[in-house]
Amino acid sequence: MRSKLAFIKSTLDKLYPNPPIPLAYTDAFSFLIAVVLSAQCKDSVVNMVTPNLMAKAPTPQKMAELSEQQIYSLIKLCGLAKNKSRFLKELSKIIVQKHGGEVPDSFEELEALPGVGHKTASVVMSRIFGAAAFPIDTHIHRLAHRWGLSDGSSVLQTEKDLKAAFPKNEWTKRHLQFIYYGRQFCPARGHDLKRCVICAAFSEPILKP
To answer: Which residues make up the CATH 1.10.1670.10 domain(s) of the chain?
Structure first.
């Protein structure tokens, strides 16, 4: 396992030494909004949508004043836009009413917001508040299973296993590196072993789901 981890770390560090956050944002609120919108939606689409949305509603107060239909008209290119329109209005109202207009800085309070699950809360806590977190999305869950770093039984188990595998101060960077690598070289479909050097380096497991 140590040699496998060393190879994975080395490969990821060579490819993505300083991986940038793929979502555009200006503050904690705009980042929270972008992460909520990114669920089942390409980052490029989110980055197209958020400038107009945040120009119209740059604060929780302003977002809460918009109708769901107004929000929908600004985010309709995103997947699940109708649900997300409701989430954005409701979470903005809660941030205003319960948190003084400031994005809360705890996992518990974030996860209590509509449309914010553990993964979204982990991304916000890590990026905005500097908390130790290893957010697990579908790319990371898939890669951890393929590379034999977790048994793939659940997202929570994958999070636990990857936190144990990598030092805490690397979690944020590894999270982003896994995402970029999964998208570029180790997709769910059309996986090409000739391009995926990490899968190619180990005979087992390679092409598990």
So the answer is: 134-201
pLDDT per residue rounded down to tens, the chain (209 residues): 678 899 999 999 999 999 999 999 999 999 999 999 999 999 999 999 999 999 999 999 999 999 999 999 999 999 999 999 999 999 999 999 999 999 999 999 999 999 999 999 999 999 999 999 999 988 899 999 999 999 989 999 999 999 999 999 999 999 999 999 999 999 988 888 888 999 988 754 444 44
Catalytic residue among 84, 89, 137, 161: 137
Annotated catalytic, 27? no
Q: Are 162 and 144 in contact (CB under 8 A)?
A: yes
Domain 28-129: top CATH class: mainly alpha
Domain with CATH 1.10.340.30 in the chain: 28-129
What global pTM score does this model have? 0.90
DSSP letter string over 79-125?
TTHHHHHHHHHHHHHHHHHHHTTS---SHHHHHTSTT--HHHHHHHH
Tell me whether residue 84 is one of the annotated catalytic residues. no
- Calculate the alpha carbon distances from 141 to 43, 149, 161, 182, 200 in Å: 18, 10, 11, 10, 19
Which CATH fold would you assign to the domain 134-201? Answer: Endonuclease Iii, domain 2 (1.10.1670)
> Which residue among 84, 119, 161, 173 is the active-site one?
119
